[in-house]
Amino acid sequence: MRRTVFMASLLIAMTAGMTVYAADAKRETFGALADGTKVDAVLLDSGHGVQVRVMAYGAGLQEVITPDRHGKPANILLGYAKFDDYLKKPQYFGATVGRYANRIAKGRFTLDGHAYQVPTNDGPNSLHGGTKGFDKVLWTIGDVKSGADSASVTLTYVSPDGDMGYPGKLTATATYTLDAQNHLTIQYDATTDKPTVVNLTNHAYWNLSGEGSGSVMDQVLTIPADSYVPVDATAIPLGKIAPVAGTPFDFRKGKPIGRDVRLSDPQLVNGRGFDHDFVVARDIAKTPRVVAKVEDPASGRTMTLKSTMPGVQFYSGNFLDATSVGTGGHMYREDDAFVLEPQFHPDTPNQPSFGSARLAPGETYRHTIVFEFGTK
Fold first, then answer.
1. The pLDDT value given to residue 22
2. CB-CB contact of 310 with 278 (8 Å)
3. For residues 163 and 63, is the Cβ–Cβ distance under 8 A?
4. Residue 48, number of CB atoms within 10 A of its CB
5. Count of other CB atoms within 10 angstroms of residue 85
6. Cα separation of 281 and 287, whole Å?
7. Cα–Cα distance between 128 and 14 in angstroms, integer?
8. What phi, psi does 180 have (nearest 5°)?
9. Is residue 47's pLDDT more than 80?
10. Mean pLDDT across the stretch 344-367?
């Protein structure tokens, strides 16, 4: 008995004066829909310098704060300070996109012999699920957890059969977990009661120097992909996979984003810069693998992106046009951010050589994304 008391007293003495760090999750109100429905958010804190705010609208990231090489924190995610702006000027900032991320040619696809038409909202094509995709709906906040090693929030959305023209009642969840190593994990899961197509990802716009700080063209991007998917003038795949060697699309050794972005390559002309899918693998992985790395020479911040999906869409912020004012009060202009979206390849439902995005009853769609934040 005396030994037990002594050991307890010793432990208290050893930890006296020491700071104990723990991850934390706090629920808060971020805004309201036009009908008065409250829109909540959850602030995740790693306890080691990184904070992430996840909002229920669009199951999206609203803010990601990380320290630079000197320990100075800044928000590195583009977004709005006020919720109303997400309704007035939607830009997919930090949002979960689906039911099918990226493009479907002419909004048409055939599944199990049945033809489906989904809304076209990007020229002649459907983009990110149509006119009211998963980024424009209110998800339900479920479990909110704090712990010694991580904090998390799980959000759910039930998309009814026929929603935006897609077959099947789809139940989707998005779980955001921030751990003590400053890794942010997003896990998407989905089930259906009819065969359908699913492709979920996060559409975060990043600037590792801090949102609103200016161009990202000097930030160094590495994508370990030997090939990419060429597209036509409407950003629909041409049906082939092309090698990156000898082209502006070769990021295998890492290079500044802006080094080749203004070359007169026909593919860069099509997208006014980079807006292409890179083939990092030919199949889905069981555990996340590295699909991209970014380093910012100015701040020292680094971000390593991992995913279980075979492709990653790289977009160099070509259409930011100074019509959006972000959280820091600055206008977002062309080249002020980059986007990296791990996913199935674009237009896969119409491109059999790309594999399959089909989900059947009894199966579970799962996509895991990991953002590892650090400094160099």
1. 87
2. no
3. no
4. 14
5. 18
6. 13
7. 54
8. -70, -15
9. yes
10. 97
If pLDDT is split at 50, 70 and 90, which confidence band does 55 have?
A: very high
Indicate whether this model's pTM tops 0.90. yes
| Distance set, CA 72 to CA 46, 173, 251, 300 (Å) | 16, 34, 29, 11
Beta bridge partners of 151: 178
pLDDT above 60 for 345: yes
356 vs 14, residue with greater confidence: 356
Catalytic site residues? 203, 341
Q: Is the dihedral of CA 279, 284, 290, 294 positive or negative?
A: positive
pLDDT over threshold 80, residue 115: yes
Which whole-number Å values give the CA distances from 166 to 111, 172, 284, 312, 358, in the listed order?
10, 14, 23, 23, 12
pLDDT digits (tens, 9 = 90+) for 29-46: 999 999 999 999 999 999
Q: What are the residues whose beta carbons fall under 8 Å from the beta carbon of 160, sequence distance 6 or more?
A: 169
**Which residue, 318, 349, 371, is CA-closest to 125?**
349
One-letter amino acid of 69: R
* Residue 206 near residue 77, CB atoms below 8 Å: yes
Q: What is the mean pLDDT of the chain?
A: 94
Read off the tokens for 27.
């629920």
Q: Give residues with Cβ within 8 angstroms of 17, minimum separation 6.
A: none
- Domains of the chain (ranges plus CATH)? 24-375 (2.70.98.10)
What is the average pLDDT across 269-283?
94
What lies within 8 Å, CB to CB, of 2 at 6+ separation is: none
